[in-house]
Specification:
Elements (H helix, E strand, L loop, with lengths): L16 H7 L2 H7 L5 H11 L7 H14 L3 H10 L1 H18 L4 H16 L5 H15 L20 H28 L2 H6 L1 H29 L11 H24 L3 H12 L3 H6 L1 H17 L13 H9 L2 H41 L11 H9 L5 E3 H23 L3 H8 L14 H8 L6 E3 H9 L9 H33 L5 H22 L11 H22 L7 H8 L8 H18 L7 H31 L4 H5 L33 H5 L7 H4 L13 H4 L19 E8 L10 E8 L2 E10 L5 E10 L5 E9 L6 E7 L5 E6 L11 E6 L3 H4 L5 H6 L1 H21 L2 H22 L7 H13 L2 H17 L2 E6 L6 E3 L2 E4 H6 L8 E3 L2 H4 L21 E4 L8 H24 L8 H6 L10 E2 L5 E2 L2 E2 L2 E2 L12 E4 L6 E2 L1 H6 L1 E3 L6 E3 L16 H6 L19 E4 L14 H52 L1
Helix pairs in contact: 2-6, 3-4, 4-12, 6-7, 6-8, 6-17, 7-8, 7-9, 7-17, 7-26, 8-11, 9-11, 9-17, 11-12, 13-15, 19-20, 19-21, 21-23, 23-25, 23-27, 24-28, 24-38, 25-27, 27-28, 36-37, 36-38
Organism: Somion occarium
Protein name: EF-hand domain-containing protein
InterPro entries: EF_Hand_1_Ca_BS (IPR018247), EF_hand_dom (IPR002048)
Length: about 1250
């Protein structure tokens, strides 16, 4: 379709559309410009006054500086920010008129409108970004002055036309708008922690756009002044004018810098305060522990903003944080542009079509200016007649409108039928009346028809909504109004049901393909299904299935296909990568998101299914499926946001929210308001995932030719393990005393970056500094870092007055990682020591780390003591250094077994601790932390590169249990995961589980109800556990529960039987097992049902791998018959060789899924032995099978029941009786004591009386 032509000069007419705007008052509002606060007016004066230098500094710059010191300044600015969206509509109308008169400005107008629409759909309310858009808006508002220049060929005093004068400037402005929007979009996607740690550079770059827009605004005003009523001489300034303008812009930049410091979002403020607790940014960037704690803190903040279910997007890992911190502003913006450009162009294309309509409407406005009545604004003639006959004004109740439509179309058909018999032309007209549609324009289908017209859900239908409804029908379909209304009555539900079936079928195929994927693709395929499946099911499960005739689908198929193709084209334009909420809306098109929701989900899933098929034979880039999942999550997020908006609307209208959501959009949103029902453990997943697929469908593959069009990232071409480093190793040695006075920095240097608390902070660096031509004091080097990122090193040295050699150098990375700065000197020992920083001002007071380099090979440097060790005990440290270096070099030359054993142990230990530190697993204790630093320090560059490639390959294969953390160590889980079966029964939601990693210290822990609020009772170590080594989707949990409980019950029954019936096997079971004949497979056999059956003699259970007699506790396979594994073999992942029966370590995580896996040990494979002919690989046990922890059952202590009322009364009566008896005894004792006291007192009185009588005598 050719692009719309609207660049011709407008034709003169008696009533010009611009005059039209003036007559109805619109142009007055445009002339007045958008509403501005006092602060905005002051900011606007800064550049406007630049043309009049007299008084600029005193009247503009100084007030701005005073504004900075004013306590109410930011409140005034905030008021302007809040009114930003209110002012935009008037500006848009004016820009549309200007674009109609002067097509040269169209490119800038379209760019600005695209950015405005993006901001309109953005949910983040960052006032700092909006402040930039205000500057952009003020710049564009200047173009409104072009209304005064009616002639596009108007020539200025210098002989240039207005079009020629503006063409380059407009084009550059459009690029500036796009660059600013891309930078803001990139910044919005950054993590909170990254925004804090790198905010100083990002905010400065964003504020710089203020100066750009201010300059463009000045350029516009100067260009327009020539062609408007302003004095031409105003643009001819001198140096004072230019200086005043610069001062004004600088003052404005100062104000916006202050604004960026003031209007900080709440979440960002919280993160800033947390960072401040750890020290300044430099300290945080150099502290691994601080970064990890802050990373975990941000993940916890994200959880707090979600509902009870797990987060849709996964937690950020330390690896993600480190990688994002290394990218600078330019690199991040450049990478984001790859996605942003497609979205921006899509916006512009749609806006261009809208602008064409606007221009056509403006040209036709003269025809409607003399007409009266609101109905004249309705463009559909039939609906216009209805509106006029009913004498409706600007809106009408939705129910009344629909019922009136029904009556109108019925009357129309009846009239045609009355004259059809006598008039052949009328008969043909009757055939085109679509009277079949009248059945569906009725009370039965009232709700969907009202939704089709009432886009905002207010209950009233406006003239604008009527026009939007009728114009959304593609004209090429040739449908009648009743046909179009019937589609929204029943056709939409038919289409939604069709898409639901397609979506479920695609998800079933994806589930079926999981076991066929290459091991390297499992990780991201699991991630994709975990995130996408639950989010999609929450939508599709609520859809109400219609009971309608089959022939109706054919009547609506043209529109369904048309919309599907339109959305597919939009997705192709952005390469199926939806990176934000605004992208969802521009791809789906105008109107309610539910109109296109399922079609959009289906098209994304259909493309992703092809990726799953490719993943069977090709290793995909790690971002391929991540982006695919993220695209679908943005789509489902749009549905959730729509539900929240509807819920707010229904609450305002005093309506039952849940009841309304069950009817709107045919029930699509019924589950999104409250997820507790759909994921309830009583509402098992079988009803949401009942479909199966055949092997024939799974075997179907698309052509390889689709690879280029499907993939957004290149397929990895390198071998996953970096063995090339040993092939290209260049032995370079340099003795410690080989420095040359004339070139003190040239040669090989090896050393470490470190901090006072951590040595080393990273792996060893080794460079060969070479001379730079034409600069005798410069040196350079290049290479590839440990992330395979090429870098360039450039430095310079000089000799200070005291004779000390001082040097500094920078490292820049090809990928755009942040530049590193080093500055130091040569000390007396010949070491190059100094400071490393993140900016060029690195010094003793401004650095992130320290460094030390020696002119020795890395093989020697790894043994050299650290500066802290030398300071503690120099001579002991140097003696140890000499011994270790000599012994290691000797072992290396001799190729001794001890040398290779040490390398093997170092490799395993480093990779294990590295994964636990950066990815998942229990945190390192102090001893393990010291062991990790020692292993990091011991690695030479070649070994480190190779080991890191092994680590990367392992992480691409080992499954990670997304959104779950170990309840023992509180860390993310990877590899094995244990789920409590007893606590699964208590949890009300399907996803609420008690989980542990494979560390025995963790799954032996207790979990309280404070830790897991949904538990009815605490978890204790005696509970039953099931262990899985693959990621389990929510849909698999009910089946896993069932099979695990059945296997556990069977195992316990067999174990009890084996105890009651003692075996007659020899006492030395191990030696007897070891003396068996190894001519055939003794370790694995296949029972009648096809699963592995472990060998058992009588009723004695033997370990599947090592054949020893196994007792409780042990592990029991849920998919094999009587397959018991002892703790030792399970911890080592041992399998028995099918040829010699000797146990061997499972070679890879997904061993058994590859047809080439032969289940033979290395010895038998080297001998060239063939596996048994009767062996069925699919039936053999692997560690991908779930295992249950079989141990003696210990039930939780039973709490006594609550006493009844009668029991309470009896207890009370007993207590009262006991109290009475006790009081009676006490009263008796008191009476006896009183009697005794009375007798004593009587005796004393008698004695006193006798004594007094004696004295008297």
């Amino acid at each position: 379709m050719p692009s719309p032509q609207f660049f011709d000069p407008p034709q003169k007419s008696p009533m010009d559309p611009v005059q039209n705007l003036a007559d109805n008052g619109t142009m007055d509002k445009v002339n007045g410009g958008p509403k501005s606060s006092k602060t905005e007016n002051l900011l606007n004066k800064i550049v406007a006054s630049a043309q009049d230098p007299k008084g600029v500094v005193s009247t503009v710059v100084q007030p701005v500086k005073m504004l900075l010191e004013s306590s109410g300044a930011m409140k005034a600015i905030e008021a302007g920010l809040n009114s930003f969206m209110e002012d935009i509509p008037w500006l848009m109308k004016g820009l549309d008129e200007v674009a109609r008169i002067h097509p040269v400005v169209t490119v800038a107008v379209l760019a600005f409108k695209a950015v405005y629409n993006m901001e309109l759909t953005r949910r983040e309310n960052d006032k700092r970004i909006r402040a930039l858009y205000i500057e952009m808006k003020d710049m564009m508002a200047v173009l409104i002055q072009l209304r005064d220049v009616k002639d596009t060929n108007d020539v200025g005093p210098d002989g240039k036309t207005i079009e020629a004068r503006l063409q380059a400037l407009i084009k550059q402005t459009a690029e500036d708008i796009k660059d600013c929007a891309n930078a803001c979009d990139t910044y919005a996607k950054k993590r909170l922690l990254v925004k804090v740690l790198k905010g100083y550079s990002w905010e400065a770059k964003l504020v710089a756009f203020v100066g750009t827009f201010t300059k463009r605004r000045t350029d516009f005003e100067q260009a327009l002044a020539i062609h408007t009523a302003r004095a031409v001489e105003a643009i001819h300034g001198d140096v004072h004018i230019i200086q005043a303008s610069v001062d004004a812009v600088n003052a404005k930049l100062e104000l916006f810098t202050r604004l960026f410091e003031t209007f900080v979002p709440k979440e960002l403020t919280t993160m800033k305060e947390k960072v401040k607790e750890k020290g300044d940014i430099t300290i945080v960037l150099s502290s691994e522990a601080a970064l990890r704690e802050l990373n975990d803190f941000e993940n916890s903040l994200d959880i707090q903003h979600k509902n009870d279910r797990s987060k849709k997007r996964s937690d950020f890992t330390m690896k993600d944080l480190r990688e994002e911190l290394r990218y600078d502003f330019e690199t991040s913006v450049r990478k984001n542009l790859e996605t942003f450009a497609g979205k921006f162009e899509l916006y512009q294309r749609q806006l261009k079509d809208e602008l064409t309509k606007t221009i056509n409407d403006a040209n036709n406005r003269i025809l409607t200016a003399v007409k009266e009545g609101p109905h004249d604004k309705i463009r559909n003639s039939e609906l216009k007649l209805i509106w006029k006959e009913m004498n409706w004004r600007r809106n009408v109740k939705a129910r009344l409108f629909v019922m009136t439509l029904r009556d109108h179309f019925r009357e129309k058909v009846q009239e045609i039928k009355l004259i059809a018999a006598s008039d052949a032309e009328s008969s043909r007209e009757q055939s085109r009346t679509d009277d079949w549609a009248l059945e569906y324009i009725s009370v039965t289908w009232l709700q969907p028809i009202m939704e089709a017209f009432d886009d905002d859900g207010s209950g009233y239908i406006t003239i604008t909504e009527v026009n939007q409804f009728t114009e959304s029908l593609p004209t090429e379909l040739g449908w009648s109004s009743q046909h179009w209304i019937a589609y929204w009555a029943v056709g939409f539900q038919l289409a939604a049901t069709k898409y639901k079936e397609k979506i479920e079928h695609i998800l079933a195929l994806m589930y079926g393909l999981r076991s066929r994927l290459l091991p390297e693709n499992h990780y991201w395929a699991d991630y994709y299904l975990r995130k996408v499946w639950s989010s999609v099911v929450e939508i599709t499960a609520g859809l109400q299935t219609p009971d309608l005739p089959d022939h109706l689908e054919a009547k609506f198929e043209p529109y369904i296909s048309h919309e599907e193709e339109r959305i597919r084209k939009n997705l192709q334009d952005i390469r199926f990568d939806i990176d934000a909420l605004d992208t969802v809306y521009v791809v789906a098109g105008p109107g309610r998101i539910e109109k296109h929701l399922l079609a959009l989900i289906y098209l994304l899933l259909d493309r992703d299914l092809k990726l799953f098929r490719i993943a069977q034979t090709k290793i995909l880039h790690e971002d391929e499926l991540w982006d695919s999942a993220d695209s679908l999550l943005w789509v489902t997020d749009s549905a959730v946001i729509r539900v929240h908006d509807l819920a707010d609307l229904y609450e305002q209208q005093k309506m039952d929210v849940d009841a309304q959501l069950k009817t709107v959009a045919c029930g699509l949103f019924s589950n999104l308001q409250d997820l507790s029902e759909i994921w309830s453990t009583t509402n098992t997943n079988t009803q949401h995932f009942p479909y199966t697929v055949s092997n024939e469908e799974l075997d179907a593959n698309g052509p390889d030719a689709e690879l280029e069009t499907l993939l957004n990232y290149p397929l990895p071409t390198e071998y996953p393990l970096s063995t090339f480093v040993y092939e290209t190793k260049d032995e370079v040695t340099a003795s410690p005393d080989s420095s040359q006075p004339q070139a003190p920095m040239f040669g090989q240097w090896s050393g470490y970056v470190y901090t006072q608390d951590e040595f080393p902070e990273f792996l060893v660096w080794s460079w060969i500094f070479e001379a730079v031509p034409d600069d005798e004091n410069a040196f350079q080097a290049s290479g590839v870092d440990y992330d395979a990122d090429p870098y360039t090193l450039k430095g310079h040295y000089s000799q200070a007055e005291n004779g000390v050699i001082e040097a500094e150098f920078i490292i820049t990375y090809e990928s755009g990682y942040a530049t590193e700065y080093y500055k130091g000197h040569l000390d007396e020992a010949g070491s190059f020591t100094g400071f490393k920083g993140v900016d060029e001002n690195v010094s003793e007071d401004n650095h992130s780390s320290l460094f030390i380099f020696r002119r020795i090979s890395p093989e020697i440097m790894v043994h050299r003591p650290s500066p802290m060790e030398l300071a503690s005990n120099k001579y002991r440290a140097l003696w140890k250094f000499a011994l270790e270096a000599v012994v290691t070099q000797t072992r290396r030359r001799l190729w001794s077994w001890s040398f290779f054993r040490e390398r093997r142990d170092l490799r395993k230990r480093y990779i294990e601790l590295n994964i636990r530190l950066w990815e998942f697993g229990p945190p390192l204790d102090e001893e393990e932390r010291a062991a990790f630093l020692a292993s990091r320090r011991a690695l030479i560059p070649y070994d480190a590169l190779f080991y890191l490639s092994i680590r990367k390959h392992m992480l691409s294969i080992i499954p990670k249990h997304f959104d779950f953390e170990c309840d023992g160590c509180k860390q993310p889980m990877g590899g094995g995961r244990l789920i409590c079966l007893d606590c699964r029964s208590d949890a009300p939601q399907l996803w609420q589980t008690v989980d542990f990693c494979a560390d025995p210290r963790c799954y032996s822990a207790s979990v309280t109800q404070e830790q897991r609020y949904y538990l009815e009772k605490p978890h204790v170590p005696t509970h039953d556990l099931v262990k899985i080594r693959t990621f389990v989707q929510w849909g698999d949990l009910p089946a896993l529960d069932q099979t695990a409980r059945a296997a556990l019950q069977h195992c316990r029954q067999r174990m009890v039987a084996s105890v009651e019936t003692p075996s007659e096997e020899p006492k030395d079971a191990e030696s007897s097992a070891g003396s068996e004949d190894v001519s055939g497979p003794k370790s694995q056999s296949v029972h009648s049902e096809g699963a592995t059956e472990a060998p058992a003699t009588d009723d004695v259970f033997r370990c599947f791998a090592c054949h020893t007699v196994t007792e409780l506790p042990c592990w029991y396979c849920t998919q094999c018959t009587d397959c018991v594994i002892c703790d030792s073999c399970e911890a080592k992942s041992l399998l028995p060789c099918v040829t010699c029966s000797e146990p061997f370590v499972q070679p890879s995580w997904y061993y058994g899924s590859n047809p080439k896996d032969n289940f033979m040990c290395n010895v038998c494979s080297v001998k060239g032995l063939d596996p048994p002919a009767e062996m069925q690989k699919d039936c053999l046990h692997t560690y991908l099978h779930p295992l249950v922890r079989c141990k003696e059952r210990i039930d939780d202590p039973v709490e006594p029941p609550e006493p009844t009322t009668e029991d309470r009364l009896i207890l009370l009566e007993s207590c009262v009786r006991s109290i009475q008896e006790s009081l009676g005894d006490k009263f008796g004792s008191m009476e006896t004591a009183l009697c005794s006291l009375q007798q004593t007192m009587s005796a004393l009185m008698a004695k006193l009386e006798s004594r007094s009588n004696g004295h008297a005598v």
